[in-house]
C-alpha cells in the first residue's frame, strides 16, 4: 500500500496530522502500511480514540514544559507523542517514563543514535544483512531480519557491533515515529555464519550490547512479538543462553523461539512475508532487501540530523536517579517491558 498524498485514509479519519509528515512517510513508502481498520484497532485495543490520544499528547507536552532537563516540544511533535502513547498502552505515566528514558539515553549515549554516512552504511552491509520486510503479517506486525554474511564469517575482524546497534536503533526509532507503521515487530536472526571469530568479537564488545539492550527495553517502546533464531550452530545457542539472555527482560526471553528448520519458522511466520532464501514468497533475498533498505536508510539521514536536539540536559536533572538506573552496573531488570 503506497502513500497517496491527496487522499490518505488517516488524513480523512483525522488519525494523524498527515501533511506535516509526508517526507517521513516517504522514507518508508516501500513498506506496507496499516489499513484503516488496523489503525483504528490500535486505538480500540487500548480503549481510546484519536481525539483522546491527541488530548493526552497535549498533556504530555505540558508536562514536558515543566521538566527542566527535558526538551520542550511543540505541536509539530504531537503525532510522535500520540504514537508513543499508543506504544505505551495508552498510559500517560508509562509514556512519561519512556519519553524521559528516551531523551536521557540520547544524551548519555549519543553514539548509539548517530546516522552513519551512506558510504559507511553500505560498506557495512557487506558484513551484516538486515532490513524490514515490505509485507506485514496478517495481524499488522512488521517482520525484520538480520544475518551475519558469508563475507564476515571469513574475516570476523570486519564486524562493527556499534554500527549494527546504531542502525537497528535507527530503524526502530523511524518505525515508531512514522504514521501508518505498525507498533509490533517480529525479528528473524539467521546465525548460520556465527563463527568462533564472530563470537570472540561479540564477547569483546559485550558492554556495547548491554547498553543497546537497555535502549530497546526502556526507551523505545516498539513491541517485540517474537525473536526467531534460525540456522543456529551449537556455538550460537551457547552464546544466546550465556551472553544474551542474562541481559534481557523475562518477557523478552520468553519470546525467543529457536527453529531447527525453515518449516518450523513457516508455522509462525507466513511465507508470504518472508524473503526467497528463507523459503518465502517475496521476490527478493535477504541480501537484496538489505541493499534496498540501505537506499531508504540513506534518505533518512537528514531526518535523524533534524532530531539531534531531542535529548535531555543532564546538567539540569533534578536528582541523580538516572545515575543509578543508567549506570554501567545497572541491569534494568526491575523495569517492566510492555
UniProtKB/TrEMBL annotation:
Any one GO cellular component localisation term in the record: membrane
Gene Ontology molecular function terms on file: phosphatidylinositol bisphosphate binding
Residues making up the signal peptide according to the UniProt record: none
Sequence ranges assigned to domain CRAL-TRIO in this UniProt record: 138-286
Protein name: Alpha-tocopherol transfer protein-like
Top-level taxon of the source organism: Eukaryota
Entry-linked Pfam families: CRAL_TRIO
InterPro entries: CRAL-TRIO_dom (IPR001251), CRAL-TRIO_dom_sf (IPR036865), CRAL/TRIO_N_dom_sf (IPR036273)
Transmembrane segments: none
